[in-house]
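User: Please predict structures.

Assistant: First:
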Amino acid sequence: MDLGFDEAQSPYQSGSQTARFLTESWAQKSVFCPNCGNLNLDKFPNNRPVADFVCSACREEFELKSQKTSFGAKVVDGAYRTMCERIAADNNPNFLFLNYSLKAMGVVDLFVVPKHFFVPEVLEKRKPLAASARRAGWVGCNILLRQIPESGKIFFVRHGEAVDRARVLSQWQRTIFLRDQPGDAKGWLLDVMKCVELLGRQEFTLDEVYGFERRLQSIYPNNRNVRPKIRQQLQFLRDKGYLDFVRRGTYRLRSSG
């Protein structure tokens, strides 16, 4: 994968317009579909709400977010209502997050967050624009990357190095089972996956995950059976091949290849 931009291609004088043109042109030429492996993505017409690219083979849609600085805990996005409607739709997009360097004229990092990791809790509603603003009352949103488990951030490029294509495809398939889960069930699974990651170890015990009982109770205040719910999620993740059962009360994160 060539990580460099073709600077001579840009028809714009504006820095922001040039950066957008360069990153979109690079993505269309260089990014393969992580779902089916198709080698190219097709660009949607400009100004289409949310989605930028589509895979001609499997019809997965992708929205590209690009910036010079590394992505932090949250990413500024567009209209809150539009995003809520879009992630609830059948063809909601996967999100590509691209960090670039204009000095090096190329890609530094690129990861995709599959659409099955987007639940309402990942979106943060911003304050309406002031009455004096040109779009007074408009409400934007932030994407809370910190709410997404690390298994939901699949890298194509990391620290200026391309990741093996087979590894990207394998990591994508590892969590594809989440697509079949309804909203509440998916929310519980994602929260338990996040708790497991916070332990920071491949192998862990059920009792260690119980240590997040208060955290999960605060997220689901109406649930009075948090521990049984934790056991249920771990068993489901084991059945789907995300975890391995080691011995009674002990699990291990399965390698993503």
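Second:
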Amino acid sequence: MKYMGSKNRIAKEILPIILKDRSEKQWYIEPFCGGCNMIDKVNDSKCIANDINEYLIEMFKKLQSGWIPPREISREMYHQIRKNNEKYFKWLVGWAGFNCSYGGDWFKGYAGKTQTKQGIRDYQDEAFRNVMKQVENLLKITFMNLEYDKINYPNNSIIYCDPPYENTTKYLQNNGFKHDKFWEWVREMTKAGHKVFVSEYNAPEDFKCIWEKQVKSSLSANGKIGGNKISTEKLFIYDGESKWEYKKQTKKKQKKG
């Protein structure tokens, strides 16, 4: 599925790293599943896909039940759904919001048939065909709509996080995501026995980058606006007691002293 910030292009490189030592009983969980372009490539039923966007999750659940989405939504209907989404089924709102918008970016502009240098491009038809190819790989997944820290994670889970990237144009407007709280949660989950992997451009000092690659991205790092750019995608794990943790403990001791 076309989705802003999708990891589809790098999934084949980072999934083997994430799943390297996975046992048959281990659950694979994505608290920020987005377009499910990673989890749809995990070939078993011990998979949980969660996202805070209820319309997205309802859309995926409906697709699991056999729903065939519309191949085309008119510009007028698109804007009606955007302005009055409470009047429509949540799964239809989810479909319109992502698959009928440019770049899979939630209601950020109607995408229909457009004249290009190569001829007429039908963005909605492309989205329809892409999702229909994906559906079979979604059937095994358990979908949830919770805050990432409210999920009941089975013991020793493998958790892959693709959270809102800090300081990117994708998330600058009405963000609300608390990055410091998230990184502390990753530390706690790792110490509790889970294997937690995080995709980001940057991480705190006590996190280790275990993979990186330059990719063309529609996200604009550091808040810079302007089309596609080259960004360095990275995969991090918590590195335990480190220079950052030492500094933190030192400050605590100094305050007590």
